[in-house]
Design brief:
By secondary structure, this protein is of the alpha+beta class. The chain is built from seven helices and eleven strands. α3 packs across α4 and α4 packs across α5. The relative contact order is 0.19.
Length: 239
């Protein structure tokens, strides 16, 4: 349910009586957020040839979009940072629902940003040593960038903060990422696990030197138009 600004304080106070808002770090919360970077890296390479980057109609489109969005968010975090504090509700079953979405948390884990603050709505007291925050503390975690539109929604377990995305900028980034790869899978000068051999082309623009295992595929999430060389222990990626 959308909340008007006039009713926001009252909605927060009502929600806080049943689901306690607290400040916690990613280090305290990552147990609730499993992340498999190799799967995102695999999907990035598998679908890098897609050229209609704004389309999101099929499962393949969704997997491609999530992988490319993760590359974008990793780059965003490293270059300009994120503008607001993520929130999450820890459900009674020990799982959590995070907003903004889980891909942003994946980016934070990929960047080892374990001191990042979260607002955690904790109705089952999974974080007994973290103190409840006030409405003023909470609202100050959500600065609104100039030119963006924001709203608050009362949902199960928490109050979400939404802000309009600059999707044209994001899709332009996807296009530039595809151009970095020339729409082709990387060219491998070396060896790899048999299970990922299909993720490399003989004429790819991005070059990989060394031995790559399936568990190494998350390294490709670090390659982008602002970071064209990734050096790992057993291989190097050059765009």
């Amino acid at each position: 349910m959308d909340i008007t600004k006039e009713c926001l304080r009252e909605a927060f106070e009502n929600k806080s009586r049943v689901s306690i808002p607290k400040i916690a770090t990613l280090a305290e919360c990552k147990q609730w957020h499993p992340y498999a970077p190799k799967q995102f890296g695999k999907n990035l390479l598998k679908y890098i040839h897609h050229d209609n980057l704004s389309e999101n109609k099929t499962d393949d489109d969704s997997l491609r979009n999530e992988a490319q969005k993760l590359v974008w968010l990793i780059d965003q975090y490293k270059t300009v940072g994120f503008y607001s504090t993520p929130q999450a509700w820890i459900k009674p079953n020990g799982k959590w629902r995070v907003h903004p979405g889980s891909v942003r948390v994946n980016a934070l884990i990929q960047c080892k940003a374990y001191e990042t603050k979260f607002i955690v709505w904790d109705d089952s007291n999974y974080l007994p040593n973290n103190k409840q925050i006030s409405f003023d503390d909470w609202i100050n975690e959500f600065p609104i960038p100039e030119g963006r539109i924001s709203r608050f929604d009362d949902v199960e377990g928490m109050i979400e903060f939404h802000i309009s995305e600059d999707r044209p900028e994001m899709y332009d980034y996807y296009k530039e990422l595809r151009e970095l790869y020339d729409g082709k899978r990387p060219r491998l000068f070396g060896s790899c696990d048999d299970s990922i051999r299909h993720l490399f082309d003989d004429d790819g623009k991005v070059e990989v030197n060394g031995h790559v295992t399936e568990d190494d595929l998350g390294a490709f999430l670090e390659l982008n138009q602002n970071n064209k060389k990734v050096i790992e222990t057993n291989f190097t990626i050059v765009g």
